[in-house]
Amino acid sequence: MSAPNSAPNSAYSELHAHFGRVAALANAVGILQWDNDTMMPRGAAGQRAESMALLHVLRHGMMTDPRIGDWLAEAEEDASLGAWEKANLREVRRVWTIETAVPPDLVEASSRAISACEMTWRQARADADFKALLPSLTEVLKLQRAIGAAKGEKLGLSAYDALLNDYEPGGRSTAIDALFDDLADFLPGLTAEVLAVQARRPADPPLTGPFPVAAQRALGVEMMGVLGYDFERGRLDVSTHPFCGGADNDVRITTRYDEDDFTSALMGVIHETGHALYEQGRPQAQLGQPVSLARGMSIHESQSLLMEMQACRSREFLRFAAPVMRKAMGGSGQAWEAEALWRRYTEVERGFIRVDADEITYPAHVILRYRLEKALIADAMPLAELPLAWNAGMRDLLGVTPPNDRLGCLQDVHWPSGGWGYFPTYTLGAMTAAQLFDAACRANTDILPAIGRGDFAPLVNWLRSNIHIYGSFYETNDLLIHATGRPLDASVFKAHLRRRYIEEI
Amino acid sequence: MSAPNSAPNSAYSELHAHFGRVAALANAVGILQWDNDTMMPRGAAGQRAESMALLHVLRHGMMTDPRIGDWLAEAEEDASLGAWEKANLREVRRVWTIETAVPPDLVEASSRAISACEMTWRQARADADFKALLPSLTEVLKLQRAIGAAKGEKLGLSAYDALLNDYEPGGRSTAIDALFDDLADFLPGLTAEVLAVQARRPADPPLTGPFPVAAQRALGVEMMGVLGYDFERGRLDVSTHPFCGGADNDVRITTRYDEDDFTSALMGVIHETGHALYEQGRPQAQLGQPVSLARGMSIHESQSLLMEMQACRSREFLRFAAPVMRKAMGGSGQAWEAEALWRRYTEVERGFIRVDADEITYPAHVILRYRLEKALIADAMPLAELPLAWNAGMRDLLGVTPPNDRLGCLQDVHWPSGGWGYFPTYTLGAMTAAQLFDAACRANTDILPAIGRGDFAPLVNWLRSNIHIYGSFYETNDLLIHATGRPLDASVFKAHLRRRYIEEI
């Protein structure tokens, strides 16, 4: 840990040391979670669950240490503190308030309900049987509502906003309503327009595999290097669900390989590399302190989507990448031309499944889930009506109706696993990515041309100095204003979609 | 955790739950240590060290919880406890006594001194410069002596025996002196005799590589399967120094590959598999409790050496393994005949380096270190005289003199890293392995013939039911008496060496 500026025995320095220990524990948990998802043999699951539960109890004990309140009160009066220390105190108070808001028996009941519901969900999804999930999901929802209410009471927020606030500090549903209503008006028309345009394009020949895993991995590693990932402080591995995890200065990403299709693993690696660059770029001098952490999920998702959607589905990138891919995969022919790859990576389709959706249709999936979870937490809609409401929303927003609940409201693990309030951050992230990339390219007009030469340094330098290095120094809105001159709105995202899918085809 | 037999709120059940939590933490540490040695990127070392230090502090806090003493006193009066519970109490008291014996500031000073000394040692070894190591090793020795004295005071042992006791519970230097003196009398003569015999053998042609890592790994995995390793509860990976580690039901082994020589990686895998079978075979019903743990280092080493030396350097095994190796490595010709491989695996040479030594000369390296560390801890010899004493011992025991200290007293990390009292367990393990294998083969005369068919089940079943399943139920001596009918002596080991290297060549 770096020494704080403040005197050795001040309340601030006590907090600094204490949260340094919390971070050391969180780093251990991060690596064990990574191991759980990448390396752990099946038979170890029971023992590992006990270790994780114990570490969570120890962490909670440290986060709710009774001395924290006194240290905070005293440190907040300390006139000797600098801007970073003050921002750190704000973050310490924020995370401490959240951690102490929920009674331990509610936390325990919720984690038991979640474990049971996740298990039930796996079978219910396979069977497309929402009724089988209803009792355990009702229990999870009830407890999430109670958790939201407990946090909301402390924070002066509605239950939903209090849950949202865990993933998106400072996020408010009134602001999201306005942004998402704007998009919901815009996207159905755009989607129809884009599909009509794409229907007129000639079909490209297929990219024919197999593409061996070792070659795909080598290509992924090469691209991670191109993007600026630091392999001295991270790794690339395989997991069922790709993620970016690990610990401070140990930022590990994963992907999964399909030998018939290298393109999705590659874009997955690029996406996770965007997350990882953010994690690797957080302020070293504050590492271990709450102020050093990533700002929130919308900014985090903006970093992955900026790389995946803004930078790496650009014609500039694909002109650079096409010969690299061709060489790595041993491909040849027209399907491997930059323009053909660009068409492949910008193909739009109305589908049922969120994780398979493209840049244009993805927000509809998110807006649907956001509206439904908000209504469910507010008790404005019976959970039993979810399948009907889901299908109606899909029809309105996307113009398709899932033939069953496996392809509908049972597809995501978020609700069974207690992740209520998370969904909107995906599309907030996409919008933020567009706004940041636009600001970056205005600030340095060489960013896109450099990407065309395989040089990401101008882009990454801008991101480092405008986003990564601040950690949680600024609140989300202020960070965006500092970087782009204004708060988040939908206009740049909308303009980006029109430009890419209509104007510049 | 399995529920104890005793009533839910009894002192025993409190201890049971408490040590279950200690185990959950130890399992987390085990996986993080494995990660540290196999997966961790270089840049994470600093953060990881902080996480490990914190977890050690938390573990020490749990192990010295003031309630343990009261629970122990009360539980030891509990007439309702069964034999396993009583054995568990004995182990709880043992580990608790050791853990509380050393004042925290001494523990901390020692770990600081060790960190510094290990770093100095790396350079000093490279430079063959003992003088450069002397100051920091003096400090480590001084603190080890103090730790030994503190533990010895509580246990009624000399400082050296108290250190030895950490690795070899119940081990006493008087007993080891007798065993090692016996060997030291026997081995120099045998070595000369064997070398004379082997000098008359015709030279075998070399096994010519390269042997690709992937093929070596596949062969290692195949042999692990043959030996009975459970891949549902473990993994095989790569590290600089091979080890068996991980956690309960997650027993991970490592090896390192040399593309010019597959034989050493393979025997390394077999050695670690012997350790792993012990770990995987510990009593499931007691898992998490001190009584479930492996008995001590000499028994542990006996399990690896029984596989590596007794079973897998036998002619029976090599007759089975030769065609398997040939096929896996794509080899052909006389060098790949079972008899040639047997000669290769039983070649004896007087060398300077312990880890490269063969079955006959290895004990001499250990006896030398044991005698020296005992004298150093007892302050019966100045540390500055170590190089001279080392070289004199090598001359007496092995008939060779190291040309420098890199090939002499600087070769091992044990002393710089605070592992005083560990060395004798290697040779106690080799002797124990011989005595156990002999007893097993007498109890079931099909064990060796079955190995010749690639069937390790008869051997492993004997080990499981006579050693593994007992964990720490018996003390070492009692375990050996229970399994072989008598305490450890050197006779079976000596007979084994004479038979393999003189009588049956």
UniProtKB/TrEMBL annotation, chains A, B:
Its cofactor is Zn(2+). GO terms for biological process: proteolysis. Zn(2+) binds at residues 271, 275, 301. Keywords: Carboxypeptidase, Hydrolase, Metal-binding, Metalloprotease, Protease, Zinc. The active site is at 272 (proton donor/acceptor). Binds 1 zinc ion per subunit. Pfam families: Peptidase_M32 (PF02074). Gene3D superfamilies: 1.10.1370.30. InterPro entries: Peptidase_M32_Taq (IPR001333). Its EC number is 3.4.17.19. The keyword Hydrolase applies. GO terms for molecular function: metal ion binding; metallocarboxypeptidase activity. It catalyses: Release of a C-terminal amino acid with broad specificity, except for -Pro. Belongs to the peptidase M32 family. Broad specificity carboxypetidase that releases amino acids sequentially from the C-terminus, including neutral, aromatic, polar and basic residues. This is Metal-dependent carboxypeptidase.
